[in-house]
Specification:
The chain is of the alpha+beta class. The protein has a single domain, classed as 4-Layer Sandwich (Glutamine Phosphoribosylpyrophosphate, subunit 1, domain 1). About 30% of the residues lie in helices and about 20% in strands. The protein is built from eleven helices and 13 strands. The strands form two sheets. Strands 4-3-2-6-5-1-11-12 form an eight-stranded mixed beta sheet. It has a five-stranded mixed beta sheet with strand order 7-8-9-10-13. A hairpin with a 4-residue loop joins strand 9 and strand 10. The chain starts with 6 loop residues before the first helix and ends in a 7-residue tail after the last strand.
């Protein structure tokens, strides 16, 4: 039997996710995503699985009158400040030299503006710096030393982002790294076994949060510490507008987590929003983005023994009309908050089982 899981099959096989996916029925007309939104019963926020508290905060802020983009940043700030989340902000896993480099971007629907920072060192909340870039400059993206100087000019303190826990993981990785490490030979396993290297060497993790207020205005944010033990200066999809994050106030928001290189090549965030503008529901738009990644992944070292991508990607979307959805390469969950509260739901998975 094929491992491929259509949206219909997913709905039939996943009772746990039925309630969430039921909220993402396709619009009655093809142009429904572009239709003027009526006032929603409640603001809606969607995020990656590590954003359960973040979506709740975002909805609370929008109820208090905050713009969606500011509410999204307030939500992800909690994750950036959590030293136990090793994929974002404080405690994020470092690059190969033991230095934590952070990326983030924000996008504001009503103004159509965006701000981003990449390879930012020593600043705990890159999402807040990205917001400053959007509000106080004529630029979209600042990187490296320039981004750090900009952040310091606005009073952001320089802190040590490498915690004892994340340093311990880095030291263990450095001790085990050798000539057969997948950093040098991606299609080979190291002498210490595939499981260990898969756990840390290619560990990804991010938080994306898309938000729509009761008026149908949109905002979004993605923030990350990037790929664990990356080459210094590597930039993933998270700070790239149209890749890890995109927002169109006439349509909604789209974003991603997982293998950043794949999301960049698929132009995931913008692709999701384009699919919704063409009439697809948020879930179906995310499924289409996953399938785009599958189609574009052709290099043998990135495929498993069944010809499937050997990595995870996850896409998230919320429409201007309050519909929401998410899809992933392999089974996962996502966070959502609205008038029914904050909760985790199953994503629509392209493949039913992950590579061994």
């Amino acid at each position: 039997m094929s491992q491929s899981c259509s949206r219909r099959a997913f709905l039939q096989s996943s009772a746990a996710g039925l309630a969430g996916v039921a909220c993402t029925a396709e619009p009655a007309v093809a142009s429904a995503s572009l239709a003027p939104a009526t006032r929603l019963r409640s603001p809606v926020a969607v995020a990656s699985e590590n954003g359960l508290q973040a979506v709740q905060i975002a909805v609370e802020k929008m109820l208090a009158g905050w713009r969606p983009v500011d509410a999204a940043v307030a939500g992800v700030t909690v994750v950036e400040d959590d030293p136990l989340d090793d994929s974002v902000g404080l405690g994020g896993l470092p690059n190969e030299e033991g230095v934590v480099e952070l990326d983030a971007c924000v996008m504001d629907g009503p103004s159509g503006l965006a701000g981003a920072v990449a390879a930012l060192q020593g600043i705990q909340n890159p999402s807040q710096v990205a917001l400053k870039v959007m509000r106080h400059t004529d630029h979209v993206l600042l990187v490296g030393e320039g981004a750090l100087r900009f952040a310091r000019s606005y009073g952001f303190p320089v802190v040590e982002l490498l915690t004892a826990a994340s340093r311990k993981v880095w030291l263990e990785w450095r001790e085990r790294r050798g000539a057969a490490d997948k950093w040098l030979h991606p299609d080979e396993n190291g002498p210490h076994g595939k499981a260990w290297f898969d756990q840390w060497k290619h560990k990804t993790g991010t938080i994306h949060l898309g938000a729509v207020d009761a008026n149908g205005d949109c905002g979004s944010c993605t923030t990350t510490s990037g790929l664990a033990f990356k080459i210094p200066g590597r930039v993933g999809d998270s700070p790239l507008i149209g890749c890890g994050n995109y927002c169109d106030n006439d349509v909604g928001t789209g974003g991603s987590t997982g293998r950043g290189e794949a999301c960049i090549l698929a132009n995931g965030g913008a692709f999701i929003v384009q699919q919704m503008a063409a009439g697809k529901s948020p879930t179906d738009a995310c499924v289409a983005a996953v399938q785009r990644v599958v189609r574009l992944t052709k290099v043998k070292r990135l495929l498993d023994d069944q010809g499937r991508p050997n990595f995870q990607v996850k896409f998230y979307a919320v429409g201007k009309n309050g519909q929401f959805g998410a899809a992933s390469m392999y089974p996962s969950k996502f966070a959502v908050a609205d008038d029914a509260g904050a909760r985790l739901l199953d994503t629509a998975a392209q493949f039913a089982t992950a590579p061994r």
